[in-house]
Amino acid sequence: MFLHHVAAYLPHTVVANDHFTRRNGLSSDWIIERTGIRERRRAAPGENTNTMAIEATKRVLREAPGIDMAEIDLIVGATYTPHDTIVTLAHAVQHAIGVADIPVVSISSACSSLLNAVEIVQGYFALGKARRALVVTSEHNTAYNNEDDTVAGHLWGDGAAALLFSAERLSPTDLLVRDVITAGAATVGKATTAVVLQPLDRSIIMPHGRDVFQYACQYMTRVTEQILDRHRLTVEDVTWLIPHQANRRISDVVLRNTGLPPERLVSNVETLGNTGCAGAAIGLADTLPLLKAGERVVVTVFGGGYSYGAMLLEREA
């Protein structure tokens, strides 16, 4: 299986830390010290999870070399901030691109949903039920966020990304998906209460941030090492590490634990905030043009609930 192209969509409105200083007294320096976040994007009135997903999809189809919209035979959407729980983002994307009578699936495993979506594509490809798949990740965190929450209200940003996968290589620049590992960790710590979004309450809360931090560092380190070990690789063989973009301090701990040098980290949390399962995909869109033949990328994620995973990509020589 190959990753053909990735494109992202970000809302135009930028919300800097001083917004929260005015709102609830949190200083910019305090937010930066604890999270690394300096600013984040906010969806405009009329924008939502589905519209952002559609914009990302239009971009990836416009930019992708050698693929026609009519060839798409599977759409997998991923979000924990749905605009509509019946007309899911996968349905919205299908309607927008006008490709009829194909499977459309939407999933949620919190911020790790990207890799579960990729696994669904692997399954369809393996069964011969699809050959060209579109994975779309989109989060409208600010629709649910409570900005007066001094624990987590300043963390969230909005954004989307779309990824095109194919069963066979379509271009010399395609990335081979060498492996994907995912798992649930709902049995550890405060997994089922640490991060909560109950739609009827319409608020993302994080009462146990320290627990999230601890297990995110632990599991993203562990699964990164696991996927490298499975392929007899070391950190020296990794060109870029793209972690879930939740907190710069978490990323730094994972770097330190794995022994990867800081210059190999892809980080957008400083300017986008926590964009949920779209964050690592947005980072992948930025990284794709930089990759050279023989270079590798590890994407590692952790989500509330808890769930985690890693993906190993390689641009073959």
UniProtKB/TrEMBL annotation:
InterPro entries: ACP_syn_III_C, ACP_syn_III_N, Thiolase-like. CDD domains: KAS_III. GO terms for molecular function: 3-oxoacyl-[acyl-carrier-protein] synthase activity. GO terms for biological process: fatty acid biosynthetic process; secondary metabolite biosynthetic process. Keywords: Acyltransferase, Transferase. The keyword DNA-binding does not apply. This is Ketoacyl-ACP synthase III. The lineage of its organism: Bacteria, Pseudomonadati, Bacteroidota, Cytophagia, Cytophagales.
